[in-house]
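Supplementary material to the annual report.
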Amino acid sequence: MYETLTQVRVRYAETDQMNVVYYGNYAQYFEVGRVESIRNLGVSYKDIEEAGVIMPVVEMHVKYLRPAKYDDLLTIKTTLRQLPPEHRIEFFQEVFNESGKLLTSGRVVLVLYFLDAATNEKTHMPANLTEKLSPFFPAK
Amino acid sequence: MYETLTQVRVRYAETDQMNVVYYGNYAQYFEVGRVESIRNLGVSYKDIEEAGVIMPVVEMHVKYLRPAKYDDLLTIKTTLRQLPPEHRIEFFQEVFNESGKLLTSGRVVLVLYFLDAATNEKTHMPANLTEKLSPFFPAK
Amino acid sequence: MYETLTQVRVRYAETDQMNVVYYGNYAQYFEVGRVESIRNLGVSYKDIEEAGVIMPVVEMHVKYLRPAKYDDLLTIKTTLRQLPPEHRIEFFQEVFNESGKLLTSGRVVLVLYFLDAATNEKTHMPANLTEKLSPFFPAK
Amino acid sequence: MYETLTQVRVRYAETDQMNVVYYGNYAQYFEVGRVESIRNLGVSYKDIEEAGVIMPVVEMHVKYLRPAKYDDLLTIKTTLRQLPPEHRIEFFQEVFNESGKLLTSGRVVLVLYFLDAATNEKTHMPANLTEKLSPFFPAK
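Predicted assembly:
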């Protein structure tokens, strides 16, 4: 299992008139969680794209348990439960507030493609990323 | 079954550097679909809120099949498959492009609360909304 | 002078906890106003980009007079006061609510570049756009 | 003069298909800069609102000099050039990239109101904020 924690401060822009974070904005928090999770391995998503691989999201599932409020310092927990086997990566993502309450839990699935959209051909995870992830998933 | 169609033009702001609509922005398109679906019954979501009822989203599930592009005129299909039985409403939502291709399909669940957040008490759907929806769901 | 009107319905996502449209979101309304202003001439901004010209914004000035509220049907008035002389276009933009009150007024300046960012070379307005705009600016 | 620096990492969501940060998103970066500038004095904007004062933006002026790119770690410099004299506060805001290049410069004017929107009455800056700002603006 590979798990990282990232913090995000709720912006005024992200609230709505219900005085909570708009439900669509968690997708951005999840994005930040995934990107920092990869950076934590010494790889940036930016470099992956520049190396010719894109990772569009193909599925997102979110459960909203408690609202996040303006100025909350949120902790985003991002988890890979297995070493991505093929061209799919599945992230489990949870958002906690400062008192440790779980606000939102999500699951986001991405697929790896070659950047050249014309071909629409799937690819595998970059070798350096697989290599850095492997130690977190020892063979049983 | 109650089904409505609404159109949304993709804004430049909604694209990302993958040259497609950012995955988090569909939540806004779904919101527009739901709001217009209710307005089509002669009720505005704004009036519901002003009457003291809020409808926070408690679940969202999205499948991204094909990307939406800048300036696409999207059609959002919003469907209620049953008359909301209790204090939950479940919307099925699909996004099509101009050539009728299904781009995204989603399911969004909302719960009805009294606006006074302090009580955190669930409520039922406003009577006028139930009344206007009923003809679409004849008793079998 | 060339002037067009476009309508935008305020989304829940665009409000903030002050119960008004977040000040940063007017940039999107202005964008919609400009794009529809050009489309009204029979040219789409998308086509301009695909023909190899981009129009990044270099200045924006906004005065916020009155707040826009959730579900307001806003009218965006977009005005060109002169035929863009060189590689700069200056749009005057105003946002009105349904009762005709001026909410926001802005001025946005764009510059025309060749899409190939590497060269960073300025260009002129596409000929078809100039041609279609000319009748609105008769020589005095 | 009172000046603070804050950092913001560019999110994928904030880019557009021109491969740069969408021009409207700088309003959010400016907001982060102002909020952290106030927090740096030991006062949170959230507390100001909860004490019954709101600070809507009445003017924003932005010059876009160079684009910010995805994953850039931006530095936002927020400056008060004078102790806010009445019920207006004027912030000067600049955005720099990691190599110290100035990307964007802005000026944002806010007005202080009592939260109770019904009265629409202007107010002064909270006393604790004035007190903490004063040392930065010695009488000449």
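Chain A has three helices and seven strands.
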